[in-house]
Amino acid sequence: MSDKKTLKKRTSLGKGLGALLGDTPPQGASTAGSTSRKEETLNEILVSAVETNPYQPRLEFDQEALKELSDSIRVQGIIQPITVRKMADNHYQLISGERRLQASKLAGLERIPAYIRTATDVQMLEMALIENIQREDLNPVEVALSYQRLISECELKQEELGDRVGKKRSTVTNYLRLLKLPPQIQDGLKHKEISMGHARALVNVENIDVQLAIFEKIVKDQLSVRKTEAMVRDIIQGKGVATEKKEASEKRKALSYELSKLQHSLSSHFGAQVKINSADDDKGEIKIPFHSVEDLNRILELLKYE
Predict the structure, then answer these.
(1) If DSSP states are collapsed to H, E and C, what string results for the chain?
(2) With contact defined as beta carbons under 8 Å apart, do 7 and 39 qualify?
(3) Left if phi > 0, otherwise alpha if psi is -120 to 50, otherwise beta: which for 7?
(4) pLDDT, tens digit, for every residue of 176-196?
(5) How many CB atoms lie within 10 A of CB 245?
(6) Cβ contacts of residue 32 below 8 Å, gap of 6+?
(7) Which terms are listed as keywords in the entry (predicted)?
(8) What is the DSSP pairing of strand 111-117 with strand 82-88?
(9) Strands 275-278 and 50-51, bridge-based pairing
(10) In 10 A of CB 297, how many CB atoms?
């Protein structure tokens, strides 16, 4: 007996992703040559026969949340099927549902319900990006990067992108502007040191050194978005510029932007608070602290010291 079931067209997907999968054609779009069908075929396929989406924009997943989803699947089963495209007999490539697939593997499932679709490589990328954007736990920088990839790699205009993801053009523009911020501020946004409101205010400051000075003040003094906006407004209007530029200049003398970035990278690499001290004549020193013999040996191993 066949394990295939014929289902009516689903409309529960997000506006953009649903349109891409053929559930809800975009307004005014031509259906000529479309791969969408009035009915979908739901199959149960082997978990081992599904390879991950090579265009998946998000490679890191919260392992604790994945374990919770796995436990839920073990008890309740898969509530929402994954979507795949057929590559060969009993060989599929994931379009959407990466977390469900990974959690199913953790739960020990042998088979998983799946919709089988036809999709080009560009459509695969577009669908993966849009599904990624529709996740609620993305940080603003991840959303902005996904928008940028849709524009550059899928050749979408901002108006088209807004329609695909169900957002106003102004919203898309606000996210894209975040990518103009220096790496330190983007990292602060990723790690929730500042909010989207803080970042949107900082984008309006043209001088990067001043941006960084304000960013550090926000983090240090826990400034609200309203106070940050007022500070930025004063700077744009010519008030408080001297103070902020002086602070930025003093910080730059202490450690340049490039050395500050290098110091951060070295600290991450060695798992220690690396300090770089630099003089005006381009001389300086790098300090790597250790707290025990074992810690020293760990650092020496990283240095490949023999």
Answers:
(1) CCCCEEEECCCCCCHHHHHHHCCCCCCCCCCCCCCCCCEEEEEEEEHHHEECCCCCCCCCCCHHHHHHHHHHHHHHCCCCCEEEEEEECCEEEEEECHHHHHHHHHHCCCEEEEEEECCCHHHHHHHHHHHHHCCCCCCHHHHHHHHHHHHHHCCCCHHHHHHHHCCCHHHHHHHHHHHHCCHHHHHHHHCCCCCHHHHHHHHCCCCHHHHHHHHHHHHHHCCCHHHHHHHHHHHHCCCCHHHHHHHHHHHHHHCCHHHHHHHHHHHHHHCCCCEEEECCCCCEEEECCCCCHHHHHHHHHHHCCC
(2) yes
(3) beta
(4) 999 999 999 999 998 899 999
(5) 15
(6) none
(7) Chromosome partition, DNA-binding
(8) parallel
(9) unpaired
(10) 12
Please state the domain extents for the chain: 5-119, 255-303
Q: Which residues are the active-site residues?
A: 98
Judged against a pLDDT cut of 90, whether residue 199 lies above it is answered with yes
Res 60: pLDDT: 65
How far is residue 287's CA from residue 306's CA, in Å, rounded to a whole number?
Answer: 19
pLDDT, greater one: 279 or 235: 235
| Cα–Cα distance measured from residue 275 to residue 73, given in angstroms and rounded to the nearest whole number | 47
pLDDT at 202: 95
**pLDDT: is 28 or 218 the higher one?**
218
Query: Of residues 259 and 224, which shows the higher confidence score?
Result: 224
Instruction: Could you please state the CATH topology (level 3) that the domain comprising 5-119 is classified under.
Output: 3.90.1530
d(CA 165, CA 282): 49
